């Protein structure tokens, strides 16, 4: 079989085609990362008039700071909870819509709408729903003997931001899971049905294994979302409180850098956060991807 190959005589053309992406990566990732690392090894006054090189002093202090270690542990719990909840509900909704032959587009439209809501609006929406004075959810929870108050109870505050962050991400996961389910060959499902397999067994033995590439992709996206993109939700609902019970790593970077004006420590935290995400991504591609069936 003959294959046709296209050759470009101009050696400069490939570099010109790559130039826009390289420039964007340099300006918006490599340069800020280099500046963050430079600031992390310096001690600078809040007004930027004097700078002193301190080496790895900021990193040593962070790794022995109980508040930072608590924020690290809290971020892990938050990321796992948001990822599991948003992906689980997204998959459940996608499976339900995939079984609907009529009005599936209407259900899809309704389920996609939350993704168009800004993160701050999502946080404020759930803050009103869980408001201990005027919210409707605490009213119904009180009938079961649960006195909800996320302004004083750290566990309640963590539950609030987990629900708000997961709700915002469900639509994204739903779209990809629905596309993956619709791409499953109908011949396989019909053959399993003829063999006597029920809907649940067909889903777990045929559809779910074929969704492993989609699940792996969404797993990485959701972890990164929980680590970085949930800052507006936390800031709009709990502002890291009460008593820093909802202060994640990304929100602590903001608190120490922009509020506390401790620029060196904040830069070191941002570098450590970037390294943590890079290590997690490497582990996911190195070990988790082995279970993916392409």
Automatic annotation (TrEMBL):
Keyword terms: Cell inner membrane, Cell membrane, Membrane, Transmembrane, Transmembrane helix, Transport
Domain ABC transmembrane type-1: 72-284
Gene Ontology cellular-component terms listed: plasma membrane
Compartments it resides in: Cell inner membrane; Cell membrane
UniProt keyword Lipoprotein present: no
Membrane topology: Multi-pass membrane protein
InterPro entries (alphabetical): MetI-like (IPR000515), MetI-like_sf (IPR035906), UgpAE/MalFG_permease (IPR050809)
Regions crossing the membrane: 12-34, 71-94, 106-129, 157-181, 202-221, 268-288
Protein's GO biological process: transmembrane transport
Highest taxon, organism lineage: Bacteria
Gene3D superfamilies found in the cross-reference section: MetI-like
Pfam family, one: BPD_transp_1
Function per UniProt: Part of the ABC transporter complex UgpBAEC involved in sn-glycerol-3-phosphate (G3P) import. Probably responsible for the translocation of the substrate across the membrane.
Quaternary context: The complex is composed of two ATP-binding proteins (UgpC), two transmembrane proteins (UgpA and UgpE) and a solute-binding protein (UgpB).
Entry similarity comment: Belongs to the binding-protein-dependent transport system permease family.
NCBIfam families attached to this UniProt entry: PRK10561.1
Protein name: sn-glycerol-3-phosphate transport system permease protein UgpA
Organism taxonomic ancestry: Bacteria, Pseudomonadati, Pseudomonadota, Alphaproteobacteria, Hyphomicrobiales
Gene from which this protein is expressed: ugpA
């Amino acid at each position: 079989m003959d294959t046709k190959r296209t050759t470009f005589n101009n050696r400069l053309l490939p570099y010109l085609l790559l130039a826009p992406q390289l420039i964007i990566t340099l300006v918006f990732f490599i340069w800020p990362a280099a500046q963050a690392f430079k600031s992390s090894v310096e001690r600078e006054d809040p007004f930027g008039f004097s700078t002193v090189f301190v080496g790895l002093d900021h990193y040593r202090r962070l790794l022995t700071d109980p508040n930072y270690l608590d924020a690290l542990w809290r971020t892990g719990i938050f990321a796992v909870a948001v990822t599991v909840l948003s992906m689980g509900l997204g998959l459940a909704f996608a499976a339900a819509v995939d079984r609907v032959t009529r009005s599936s587009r209407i259900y899809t439209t309704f389920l996609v709408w939350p993704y168009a809501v800004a993160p701050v609006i999502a946080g404020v929406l759930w803050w009103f729903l869980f408001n201990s004075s005027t919210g409707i959810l605490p009213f119904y929870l009180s009938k079961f003997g649960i006195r909800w108050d996320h302004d004083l109870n750290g566990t309640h505050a963590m539950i609030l931001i987990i629900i708000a962050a997961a709700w915002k991400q469900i639509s994204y996961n739903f779209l990809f899971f629905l596309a993956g389910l619709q791409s499953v060959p109908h011949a396989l499902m019909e053959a399993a049905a003829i063999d006597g397999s029920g809907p649940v067994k067909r889903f777990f033995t045929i559809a779910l294994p074929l969704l492993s590439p989609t699940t792996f992709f969404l797993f990485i996206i959701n972890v990164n979302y929980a680590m970085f993109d949930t800052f507006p939700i936390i800031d709009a609902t709990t502002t890291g409180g009460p008593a820093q019970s909802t202060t994640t790593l990304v929100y602590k970077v903001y608190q120490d850098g922009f509020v506390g004006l401790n620029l060196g420590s904040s830069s070191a935290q941002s570098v450590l956060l970037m390294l943590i995400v890079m290590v997690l991504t490497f582990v996911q591609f190195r070990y988790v991807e082995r279970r993916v069936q392409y």
